[in-house]
């Protein structure tokens, strides 16, 4: 223990010196410069946003955005050898890790909403989704009101969990809530018959279907309840760092690079299970977003 | 039973699983070394320290022994970065989950190791301390040169058993999504839809390692106390 | 770090509209108590049977009991729980597996945790029972036999009444272990005290208050149990034995 404390104290002392040498207006950038290291969040199975592919490599639409933002930070701070530390997160841990400043940046599939903005800030929206249901094609569940007395699995700590709990208590949906740690665990619970449906953001569900053993067996159903905006999470009230994140994403959108990424990860084969295709076209809403980047949440 | 096993998943994910195993070993080694060191210090404070210090140590041991390790891990995971920043005054300080897990394991296991060391010291006949003092050794000299070497010999089996318990406890870092052996295995199993094979594999590995440790502890126990069965 | 304390958070309604935060935390506590009490009772019963089996002269029984103890003692509890929850239903005949998975999810999780925790705890506790029985001197066993008692009778009238008193302290620590270990239930989605604490600390964004409350609750219950069992120990101790001195 003492060794760790000593190490931490030393790191703290060194960090303090470096910090005073180059004063930045952004605490995150200051920290990155002081440690010559940026810590970013990664996910195990958030298809096609941030996932581990067949070669155990990190990839995905949001992972590419992460890399682009890291490049922008390198350039801005003049640190070509900036170390990139990856930290595996789950829906239940990611917000805490950004809020307690362990993570500098988390771009995967995290909804930006006003309630979460009490703890963290968000960069420009990079995808628009909405919660829906994944069911077996033979299931009697067609829409939200069919959930009465059915077992529905949600990922612990997601907006879907809160929405389902709220609807259960306010609209009397009467669903039995099962908690999973990751999307893939939730899917497994539907596949093995433990849950009747999985409630998640639609794109995530398409990813799960594409990756499953029998894609034709599954169906994504239920009305589009509400729109949710995915954004990169960063430390609260850090205008300097947020500017880099926002500019990078807006730049990628306006240059057409983001549309290419959307094609690559949503419409073409990705290296998961020997090559699967999600088949999600670019919606009109997304087209509009790419033309007019914004960091606004939907609630 | 009509489950079709497919063990290839484990072979394909081998490098990833080995990474997880490394994390588990790191947790185990640091946990055991620092846990025994801190546990010994605590035990000495509790048995030979001035009364307020002894009371404080007792409180520490009782606190960590009465709350679940999972709760301790959560505590450190969520609170440690903020607390360490206040303590060090460095706003840029980060504490990765691995350090939070290590701190939680070391501090909690030290409470258990303390009890073992205490029993070990107690097992050395009290006359020896008096003999040392009458020979002109200081209490500290007596402790480090005479009492502790014998105590550690006597408590090797207990320490080994606690080490196995610690190895089993390291799997609890699953709750903060760490990539230890179990965490890596769960990820691979869920990614490939092969949790059945993966969990059986993990259980067998833990079983083999822990059984070997338990057997060794029993053998040592018999060697140290040939009189008892 | 600017943390704004708010100890009244427990009275406020949860953002999900499921009730006050304090109520949700207490619900977690009730699950913890429900899991640990049932698991402990079952574990003591199994441990007694296994512990006795290991001291009998019947080789097959002794071997079976030892195998059980070795397997369940040497696999982490979390892994065992995952085996019961994710693996066993897949390996059972399909109809049984489906029946298990189609149970009410909360009950299913509850019983899965109880099964896992019981078998894990019983393996450890049976060792305590065994050494309790072995600590009753061999002479008493022989004396019983020379008086013409059968094995069952000598256990019933001579050995067990003494052994059971000896094992009260280790059984207390077994209960406290079950009580703490019940927190693994959160890994399969059953929000007992530790799980509820983590979830509510995120919902409310006031983690310190929830973790402090949970820590206090765990400590209070632990101490209550220790005091209670000390009283039981005092009432049942054997006059003249070493335990009486304390």
UniProtKB/TrEMBL annotation, chain A:
| GO biological process terms held by the UniProt record | amino acid transport
Q: Which UniProt keywords apply?
A: Signal, Transport
Q: Quote the SUPFAM superfamilies the UniProt record gives.
A: Periplasmic binding protein-like II
Q: Which domain of life is it from?
A: Bacteria
Q: Name one GO cellular component term.
A: outer membrane-bounded periplasmic space
What positions does the domain Solute-binding protein family 3/N-terminal occupy? 37-269
Q: Does the keyword Transport apply?
A: yes
A Pfam family that the UniProt record links to this protein: SBP_bac_3
What PANTHER family does the record tag this protein with? Answer: AMINO ACID ABC TRANSPORTER PERMEASE (PTHR30085), GLUTAMATE_ASPARTATE IMPORT SOLUTE-BINDING PROTEIN (PTHR30085:SF2)
Family under the similarity heading? Belongs to the bacterial solute-binding protein 3 family.
Protein name in UniProt: Extracellular solute-binding protein family 3
Q: Which organism is it from?
A: Nitratireductor pacificus pht-3B
From TrEMBL, chain B:
The record's annotation in Pfam families points to: BPD_transp_1 (PF00528)
Report the InterPro entries cross-referenced here.
Answer: AA_ABC_transptr_permease_3TM, ArtM/GltK/GlnP/TcyL/YhdX-like, MetI-like, MetI-like_sf
Q: Where in the cell is it found?
A: Cell inner membrane; Cell membrane
Q: Does the keyword Transmembrane apply?
A: yes
Q: Which CDD domains match?
A: TM_PBP2 (cd06261)
ABC transmembrane type-1 domain span? 21-217
| Molecular function GO labels | transmembrane transporter activity
GO cellular component terms, alphabetically, are: ATP-binding cassette (ABC) transporter complex
Which residue spans traverse the membrane?
25-48, 60-78, 98-121, 198-220
GO process annotations (BP): amino acid transport
Protein topology in the membrane: Multi-pass membrane protein
Read off the PROSITE patterns from this record.
ABC_TM1
What are the alphabetically sorted keywords of the record? Amino-acid transport, Cell membrane, Membrane, Transmembrane, Transmembrane helix, Transport
- Family per similarity comment: Belongs to the binding-protein-dependent transport system permease family. HisMQ subfamily.
Q: How does it assemble?
A: The complex is composed of two ATP-binding proteins (GltL), two transmembrane proteins (GltJ and GltK) and a solute-binding protein (GltI).
Q: According to its UniProt entry, what is the function of this protein?
A: Part of the ABC transporter complex GltIJKL involved in glutamate and aspartate uptake. Probably responsible for the translocation of the substrate across the membrane.
Its recorded name reads Glutamate/aspartate import permease protein GltK
The protein's organism comes out as: Nitratireductor pacificus pht-3B
